[in-house]
Design brief:
By secondary structure, the chain is α/β, with parallel strands linked by helices. It contains 7 helices and 7 strands, in the order E-H-E-E-H-E-H-E-H-E-H-H-H-E. Keywords: Oxidoreductase.
Amino acid sequence: MELKDIKGKRALVTGGTKGIGKAIADELAEAGATVIVSARTKPENTAHHFIAADLTDAGQTATLAQKIEDAFGGIDILINNVGGLTTPGGGHSTLTDAHWQQELDLNLISAIRLDRILLPQMIKQKSGVIIHISSVAGKQALWNLNLAYAVSKAALNSYSKALATELADKGVRVLTVSPGATRTEPMVKFLNDYATSAGITPEEGMKQLMAQTGGIPMGRMAEPEEVAHLVHFLVSPSAAYLTGTIYAIDGGSLPTVG
């Protein structure tokens, strides 16, 4: 089935200058959307409208929303992609209060805050789609590698589901996309750092990490563009009856049902 296009829709992709965010921004623009991207620093080159913002800062988040309102009159599609693993591994004893707060601010609170600011306009126009980019770590934490990150993503999953239920009769759909291992610069750096600390090759490091989760049945990492394809479908009219669902895109790595 050919996707109905999203021509003329206004889309904001946070963290949209590289990796999964950039792939999503590029695909939505190609499908006809007017795309705005935000990040802390402006890249050397971007084909999209760019607004600098640190979304862990409430003031900068409010400024971002106001600039979008002034320039575009609001948005129709919000991709909450900002996030990342920023805390050390090693389990609970290595994580301070500051580590926990840092991970929650980046992976959970930033999305909640931006949703709260932009939702009134979506509700008023009785249409809109919000996509929260989560992670399979939200359903399968690795205590020695990503404990705080996994907890923050699990909380994002729960928040996203509750928000979808609240907004279902208001014309606004809310969905969650949970990538597994994806070939992005941060992932490559993480693998290299992990391999260096363990005194092994990056390939061996990848095998060790995947062994903890049962491996990837498809035998490879995802490409950012593959995540973007799924997001494109979910924000399109072809997915008009979908809301409140978490979509894992992980090559079959999650060993659980649902």
